[in-house]
Amino acid sequence: MDTISPKRVKACRSTIRLSGTRAVSREAITSSSEQVLTQAPDISSRTDVRFEQILASVVFNEHLTGDYWLIEVEAPTIAGRLSPGQFVNIRIDGSLAPYLRRPFSVYRLSPDRRRLQVAYKLLGQGSRLMKSTMPQGGVCDLVGPFGRGFRLPENARRIAVIGRGIGIAALPTLVDDAAKRGIEVHGFLSARTAPNLVALDIFASHGFPVVTHTDEQSQGMVTDHLVAVAEKLDFDGFYVCGSNRLARAVHALADRKHARAEVAMEQHMACGFGDCHGCVVQVNLEPSGRDKAFREVCHYGPVFDTWEIVNASA
């Protein structure tokens, strides 16, 4: 069954009282000695808990490139307060397949922040139903915005964004936001094949350089190019989404350069706000990795500092 049943719910603020358990205080989850979350946490501990469910009008739902499609919907109450890196949960209306909502990164926002886009890969039954049941003029049942997004350092001048496959879809909102702040962005994008490299037009529209890497044409990893460029240029931050292997490589480079590094985690989710505990991962509580805990990706993330995630389960 759906986590949120009304057609439209009011924005939720501060603390949510979770079904079947009491709401707990922020202090209850901040102790570094805690190893496992045994109670549902106060969702406001690391995110601004304001989300709502809407039936959004579909502006278009069309082929993007390769295996990817792009849907744009009218969602001003969600788009207006969404931060780069946050996500929405989408439900296929009138169908029990897939049974649960699916989380999707927001690909782009319209300049007036009334519309949002989601890029999705045609892979399973759910994504194919998104393509066939959400035509232009139809509706899209979505909830959001959810999660903690990317953070740009103050006075940043240059950042690098690194993505692979559908993980690239989490990065364009950050690229757009950095461009508005006058921050130079270098892209390092990877995919199995050239048609599956998304967002190249977005970098071009801002005049930002981008290095591409495909499995069919290149050996090694796209981070090999990143390391080479980082030897010549200083970056104030590194932002990655796509695989654990990419995250480890970016973390190692950022650690040597003493720069911020963040990773957007890809994880199966159901509710999107911490009630179901279905997206739990082990994380480091401090950079040395001595103390660890289990955290829900949906509200502690999906964006984490790379040191929180890299080697957390080693």
Write down how many β-strands occur, each being a DSSP E stretch of 2 or more residues.
Answer: 15
Terminal CA distance reads 35 Å
Helix content: 10-25%
Low-confidence stretches: 1-48
Q: How big a fraction of the residues is strand?
A: 25-35%
CATH class of the domain at 150-264: Alpha Beta
* CATH architecture descriptor of the domain at 150-264: 3-Layer(aba) Sandwich
Series of H and E elements? EEHEEEEHEEHEHEHEHEEEHEH
Question: What is the topology, as strand order, of the major beta sheet?
Answer: 4-3-7-1-2-6-5
> What kind of sheet is the major sheet?
7 strands, antiparallel
CATH superfamily of the domain at 150-264: Nucleotide-binding domain of ferredoxin-NADP reductase (FNR) module
- Structural class, judged by helices and strands? alpha/beta
Summed up, the helix count is: 8
Average pLDDT reading: 83
The value of Rg in angstroms is: 19 Å
Shape: globular
Describe this structure in words.
It is globular, with a radius of gyration of 19 Å. The strands form three sheets. The chain has a seven-stranded antiparallel beta sheet. Strands 10-9-8-11-12-15 form a six-stranded mixed beta sheet, sandwiched between helices. It has 314 residues and is of the alpha/beta class. The longest helix has 14 residues, at 244-257. Helix 5 (222-230) runs parallel beside helix 6. Helices cover 19% and strands 29% of the residues.
